[in-house]
Specification:
Two copies of one chain form a homodimer. Chain A is α/β, with parallel strands linked by helices and 394 residues long. Chain A folds into two domains: 4-98 and 138-265, TIM Barrel (Alpha-Beta Barrel); 294-387, no CATH class. Chain A has helices spanning 46-51, 61-66, 70-75, 79-83, 95-104, 110-117, 139-149, 167-194, 214-225, 243-253, 271-279, 289-295, 327-331, 334-342, 346-372, 376-387; strands spanning 4-9, 16-22, 25-29, 31-34, 57-59, 89-91, 124-127, 134-137, 153-155, 203-208, 232-234, 263-265, 284-287, 298-301, 304-307. In chain A, the strands form four sheets. In chain A, strands 4-13-12-11-10-9-6-5 form an eight-stranded parallel sheet. Chain A has a three-stranded antiparallel sheet with strand order 1-2-3. In chain A, strand 10 (203-208), helix 9 (214-225) and strand 11 (232-234) form a beta-alpha-beta unit. In chain A, helix 8 packs parallel to helix 9 (214-225) and helix 14 (334-342) packs across helix 15 (346-372). The first copy, chain A, is globular and about 60 Å long. The model of chain A has no long low-confidence stretch (mean pLDDT 94). Chain A binds chain B through residues 38-40, 42-47, 67-68, 72, 75-77, 82-84, 314-315, 317, 327, 331-333, 335-336, 339-340, 342-343, 345-347, 349-351, and chain B through 38-40, 42-47, 67-68, 72, 75-77, 82-84, 314-315, 317, 327, 331-333, 335-336, 339-340, 342-343, 345-347, 349-351.
Chain lengths: 394, 394
Amino acid sequence: MFEFKIHHKAKDSLARTGTFKTPHGVIHTPVFMPVGTKGTVKTLSQDDLKKINTEIILANTYHLYLRPGEKIIKKLGGLHKWMAWNRPILTDSGGFQVFSLAQEKGLTKDTKFKTTIKIDENGVEFKSHLDGSRHYFTPEKAMQIQHDLGADIIMAFDECAPANSSKKYFKEAMIRTHNWLIRCKKEHDRLQNTRASAPNPQALFGIIQGGIYKDLREESAKFVNGLNFPGIAIGGLSVGEGKHTMLEMIEKVTPHISKTKPIYLMGVGTPEDLLECVDRGIDMFDCVHPTRMSRHGAFFTEHGRFSIKNNRFKTDKSPLQKNCKCETCKTYSRSYLRHLISENEILGLRLITIHNLHFLLNLMRNIQKEIKENNFTKFKRNFLKKFKSKNEKI
Amino acid sequence: MFEFKIHHKAKDSLARTGTFKTPHGVIHTPVFMPVGTKGTVKTLSQDDLKKINTEIILANTYHLYLRPGEKIIKKLGGLHKWMAWNRPILTDSGGFQVFSLAQEKGLTKDTKFKTTIKIDENGVEFKSHLDGSRHYFTPEKAMQIQHDLGADIIMAFDECAPANSSKKYFKEAMIRTHNWLIRCKKEHDRLQNTRASAPNPQALFGIIQGGIYKDLREESAKFVNGLNFPGIAIGGLSVGEGKHTMLEMIEKVTPHISKTKPIYLMGVGTPEDLLECVDRGIDMFDCVHPTRMSRHGAFFTEHGRFSIKNNRFKTDKSPLQKNCKCETCKTYSRSYLRHLISENEILGLRLITIHNLHFLLNLMRNIQKEIKENNFTKFKRNFLKKFKSKNEKI
């Protein structure tokens, strides 16, 4: 189980294709994972997801822990059964959301950040964003919740420091993350061995931190790689550090990761980023961007992003994207979709989400194909040239 | 075209089955028409509607006239093509919404009602609920808009007086409706003959008014029946007059309607009403009730209506209704659906709408079957007994 196999490598870049085996099926990499925060990819049914060939989705531990509660999901047979999704699922650790709570309040300075959510070496105390109730997450607790949920891939509990933290604080957070990583692994092994929770084996991925500092990122990469996880994630990027820094950090860590492990870049998912990061050896991605932009009426075409609200689409008979094979494009015109979005009709949100996710998943399939045919670099260049040509400011 | 054929008649009631032929397919009666106010049955795709075997939907002229405008829809090939629905459509005349505007403001006394929306013998001036802009509907205008939209069945422009109007006012409105009816027919014939708009023939239905007065209803039924429409509607009921009065009015009008015409009761659609009205000879129904209740988390079972928000469904593994064949019930548990609705997840609204519409359409198919097997009266009694047994107050 959880075998990662590399099938093709690009000759002129770090891009590669592979397969990752899980109890609920094989994932073809590079892969984009749609985000189903509360156990539902917003606006879509599980059947909609299958129709666009979604291989794996992500769900958020923090949200499911608060509501309905992981014990209820466990009682009902685990996340797969409860949400009627029999393909692979990845759950995050809850860490990112817990640490985001402090940032959302604008308390991003080191000290205040620490005191607002009360971080100590043992874990983090935080208040629910729903009702202000107090909760305490430790690495062990994060493992226990994720075992109750029963996803195929689960994530270590890490500290995600704000992008504008000091280097001193980034280092402190990184060391704490490393210590927690060891505790996560220990608790995960214990739970697996006692078969206390999930009926299927689960793969625990470690997470590299270190902020925007090359030396910290390298140190973290080496440490995490040494713990022999079936997969390794890069956390704390795409949180405001800028594209250039993000790519630089990726370039610093990948050389220190064993070639036999899939690399998962957390929270990244624009078409531009996907191409640049695949180029640098990333195998897995997730991001709320494509689903969120859909609910604002924005859609992808090969010529970039557009807003369906634009007046010129009022009498436009054509589909969102010419020759697109998604249900939305095969059935509905821009004129009708514009009407639905203008009128706040729920169907519009779903139809545009279907198109945008199909667009991204199709991009990933094309990327796989082009890597296989050793044509990725050229494909990337052409795609980006076209994609940037008419991009609207949305 | 527009042939209505009665296939089976119940021996002990006025219930009957039939078929009504339209350019976009045959409708099996008694039929329930889901309401797609703005050219979309709220939360559902056209594919969802087909999967639950929807034979015909209703769309609202008033809303489509205001946005996107019937000229845009005509330009894009008509309502069927624009909304990608190739089965029958019925549009109302816009009258009901225009007259509702005055009622929604609480101005239901005769005089004020008249002055707010400015009714005269020629037509009605009203303000758009969207932007306050002034518009003027006449019988001719209502026909022209509906020809531009191009539905299979279109409705005459009638005056729908408030339920608490005086008898004097009901009579006045009825006479105006009759005069308008003649003008609608004339304009419809003119448009059909010149083929000015819709590419397909359209059936114009007349509407019986007369409020809650037996003599007015009888007078109106005789008048409308005399004009030789392919179908006849009963308007102005189910607007607050009470169940008993509604059924009484139906009983008064049906004897005066030719047996060769389908009878359409406008705005009625609870399971109880459907059964009682089929029993009294009604062939067609529409109502926003099943779609609206879905968006509030209410669902039908054979034991009545329930609210998915109820705490006891939190860990309920069962489907909304045992043995139900809809996609929702075949896939998802009450626990998951309760979570979706509690979390305001859009998917929940759609899944419950699918179930409730499937429930009603399935009820209509069962009604057809039971009439055919001469078992309708018993079926109705048993259904209602069970349905009322556990009904929650929703």
